[in-house]
Amino acid sequence: MISAVALLGACSLSIIPEGTARGAPAEDGDWVEGPPSASQPARKPIRQAPVRQTAGTIEAVASEQITAVSDDDTRATGAGIALGPDIASLNLQSAKASAALQSFRTSCSSLVRRTDNSGLTSGEDWRQSCDAATNWPSDDARRFFESYFEAVQVGDGKAFATGYFEPQIQGSRVRTNGSQVPIYRRPSNLLDVDLGQFSDALKDKRIRGKVNGTKLVPFEERAQIDDGALAGQGLEIGWASDYIEFFFLQIQGSGRIAMPDGSVMRIGYDGQNGRDYTGIGRVMRERGLLADGKTNMQGIVEWLRANPEEGRKIMRENKSYIFFRELTGPGPLGAMGHPVVGRTSVAADRKFVPLGAPVFLDMEHNIADGIWIAQDTGGAIKGSNRFDTFWGAGEEAAQIAGGMSSRGQALIFLPKGSVAKLLQSQQGN
């Protein structure tokens, strides 16, 4: 079974957001409703927000108490922020807090030195909590988060979460009669161009393509690659047994290849061709191809197998193509370059959540409730309070991720004093 989510929608030779460099997490789903748009309230003084947890639900902050501290509404500081409740008042389950502490500790080496695209913090702001995390006992993780962080609501706090996982499919390291679908490594001529190096107005924008003579041109799309555009270049790291299964593994951005001898090769994202992502579930719904009750992952796969010729054409409408590398250490790796952990790591939009920050979710699907660490990104995980929860590998992970489409409330944990610091910065401008 494959998860009900989709991967990054990076566009070739069009401006794409910073953070779509890898593809493990997912889009808002081929078959799920898109997230609500975040409100963009006018600037008002920051006050303590009357957010509280009642019967398991975080109540939203009134819009008049949310402050935008910048004019850039593409970032958290422009979407508006408000202090949330004391972290001690939240339902931080000890086991989940302990796992979150471990993942936070893992992220610290990057967190203290990376640029925070959200505008909420600087790397140095995290130094104290990261130093404390180094030797903090895991069985006292709740007190760690209560001691070093304050809960902050971004925008209206209304969250939408999907799920992703690490699938396993059949394949081989060499081409056989039963394994004919190539798994390609990243081609050497695939280029990522950081446009911010050329113009401040294009900060955080990139394009992907390849050089043809003196021009940067689009890289081959899925149909061209399927038809052999990369064949004979020695790029194959393995071969998948089933095109549909590999198509959806690409959507997840990482996975496991079960070999004929019983061994398993783990593969992770190593690039994307820069072409637009198209969610085929949405295409199939719009064309009336999916019957009522068949708009989930299983229904889509059933239709593709029952209509192989037309199904292949529909899959080719998703021009995005993912390249892989073999993983030999912990993984899969998130956008920070650290391993993502099932039931602990979450993908977020780095313009609204600092990568490495703890996130508290209170969702309709209460299996997603609790503290997560933002360690990943995804092309459709965009905007404030949009998250993609990672559930690990195996059938249970697939079942949970495939059914994860939930709304609720979200808080971000920032170093204590962050909101006051942002307010001072606003008053100084």
Structure description:
The chain is α+β, with helices and mostly antiparallel strands. The protein has two domains: 16-31 and 164-327, Ribosomal Protein L25, Chain P, CATH 2.40.240.50; 53-163 and 339-428, Barwin-like endoglucanases, CATH 2.40.40.10. 23% of the residues lie in helices and 25% in strands. It has helices at residues 76-79, 94-111, 127-133, 141-148, 222-226, 243-252, 280-286, 297-306, 308-316, 395-403, 418-428; strands spanning 16-17, 53-54, 57-58, 81-83, 149-154, 158-166, 168-172, 181-184, 191-194, 205-212, 215-217, 236-240, 254-258, 264-272, 322-327, 345-347, 358-363, 370-376, 386-393, 405-415. It has a six-stranded mixed β-barrel with strand order 6-19-16-18-17-20. A six-stranded mixed sheet has the order 8-12-7-13-14-15, with helices on one face. Strands 1, 9, 10 and 11 form a four-stranded antiparallel sheet that branches. Helix 2 crosses helix 4 (141-148).
Order the strands across the largest sheet as they lie in space.
6-19-16-18-17-20
| Biggest sheet overview | 6 strands, mixed, barrel
| Proportion of helical residues | 10-25%
CATH class of the largest domain: Mainly Beta
Percentage beta strand: 25-35%
Distance between the termini: 53 Å
Spans of 5+ residues with little confidence (pLDDT < 50)?
Answer: 1-57
Helical stretch tally: 11
InterPro entries: 3D_dom, MltA, MltA_B, RlpA-like_sf
Protein name: peptidoglycan lytic exotransglycosylase
Region (Disordered): 21-53
Keywords: Cell wall biogenesis/degradation, Lyase
